[in-house]
């Protein structure tokens, strides 16, 4: 079992910055990747940024040059600069991990409950 807890969301003006954090805990054997997804009202959830176990990163085109994902042990961060109105959404942390069980190990995908980011004047 794995728990992901996000923090750092809030209200910010256009052009401002926020830093989101996601702490993973539980019977984690290893982490394959961690990422951030977001969902705005009336839109589908989309991948924003991803970081693999090797440190490779990937971003959706709309945030390239503005957002930076990083990971330190079991915590993943998303630094968001130059925020725009269209960045307003609920941001969800995702972890693809190998977990320890009674009989061995298995892969699982886990999600946090989300943290709301509102960009507004």
Task: Note down, in words, how this protein is organized.
The protein is built from no helices and eleven strands. It is mostly beta strands and 121 residues long. The strands form two sheets. Strands 2, 4, 5, 6, 9, 10 and 11 form a seven-stranded mixed β-sheet that branches. The chain has a four-stranded antiparallel β-sheet with strand order 1-3-8-7, with no helix packed on it. The model has no long low-confidence stretch (mean pLDDT 96).
Q: Determine the fraction of residues in helical runs and give it as a percent range.
A: under 10%
Mean pLDDT value: 96
The fraction of residues assigned to DSSP E strands is over 45%
Order of helices and strands: EEEEEEEEEEE
Global morphology: elongated
- The poorly predicted ranges are none
Q: Largest sheet, described in full? A: 7 strands, mixed
What descriptive keywords fit this protein?
mainly beta, seven-stranded mixed sheet, four-stranded antiparallel sheet, elongated
């Amino acid at each position: 079992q794995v728990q992901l807890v996000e923090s750092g969301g809030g209200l910010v003006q256009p052009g401002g910055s926020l830093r989101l954090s996601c702490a993973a805990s539980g019977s984690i054997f290893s982490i394959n990747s961690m990422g951030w997804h977001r969902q705005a009202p009336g839109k589908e959830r989309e991948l924003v940024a991803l970081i693999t176990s090797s440190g490779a990163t990937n971003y959706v085109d709309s945030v390239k040059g503005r957002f930076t994902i990083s990971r330190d042990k079991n915590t993943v961060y998303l630094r968001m600069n130059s925020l725009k109105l269209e960045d307003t959404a609920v941001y969800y942390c995702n972890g693809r991990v190998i977990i320890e069980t009674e009989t061995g190990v298995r892969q699982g995908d886990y999600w946090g409950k989300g943290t709301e980011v509102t960009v507004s004047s």
